[in-house]
Amino acid sequence: MDLSVIIHYIIGMTYGYIRVSTDKQTVENQRFEILGFCEKQGLAVDAWIEETISGTVDVGRRELGRLLEKVGKGDLIICSELSRLGRSLFMIMSILNLLMEKEARVWTVKDGYRLGDDIQSKVLAFAFGLSAEIERNLISQRTKEALALRRKEGVTLGRPKESRGRGSILDGAELAVSVMLLAGTSMSQMTRALGTHHRTLSRFIERQQLDSGENLARVREMLG
After folding, report:
1. pLDDT at 117 over 70
2. Which residue of 32, 46, 116, 163 has the smallest Cβ count within 10 Å?
């Protein structure tokens, strides 16, 4: 048993978080995954949080919100995958940022995330926070543009048809993706964190040359 696990036994609580979208879905699969994971890690779940609710519902109206209010330094939340926390990039990134600020940890079984107080986690936290800010700004910008367009031409909200197919849905997230590349984050982890497909992310990285030595060196220098 490593030192981090021992510390959790002494000062931290370990929470198992389970969320299903409908009452037709079973919580047992997620519970089984978490228990199997904990057994391998030598951990015991101190408390379970289970809820049947859509991941699009505001965190404050969910059991997860109450959990986030009480967790503190050394506490650990284990869930099957990041999508259990929320269904949007902004929501997931905001939750992870909050946990980082409170010095709590979140581990996922399927995604393989181990977000804590090590260097990689801090780099990822920077990327997550940046991604959340980008997403928030993009939502605000798109909403304002769509409203202006609706007032002017009476069209529905959304991107203009003539603009579809141009660029990438990841435009504006160059720095966040670069930081994750620099941290050695796997493509599967990146696609889950960014809420996009592997092909979309690969094309974006290639088009922007984000994995080039020159770009990564620039980002490394910027991060100090």
Report:
1. no
2. 163
User: In one letter, which amino acid is 66?
Assistant: R
Structural tokens at position 2: 């490593």
51: its two tokens: 């809820």
Which stretches of the chain are assigned E, i.e. beta strand?
14-20, 47-52, 76-79, 105-108, 114-115
Edge-first strand listing for the sheet containing 47-52: 47-52, 14-20, 76-79, 105-108, 114-115
Is the backbone of residue 152 left (phi > 0), alpha (psi -120 to 50) or beta? alpha
Whole-angstrom distance, CA of residue 154 vs CA of residue 146:
10
pLDDT of residue 33: 94
> Model's pTM, two decimal places?
0.56
Positive or negative: CA dihedral 189, 13, 129, 143: positive
Least confident of 22-26, 149-153, 185-189: 149-153
Sign of CA dihedral 97, 116, 20, 169: positive
Query: How many other C-beta atoms can be found within 10 angstroms of the C-beta atom of residue 68?
Result: 19
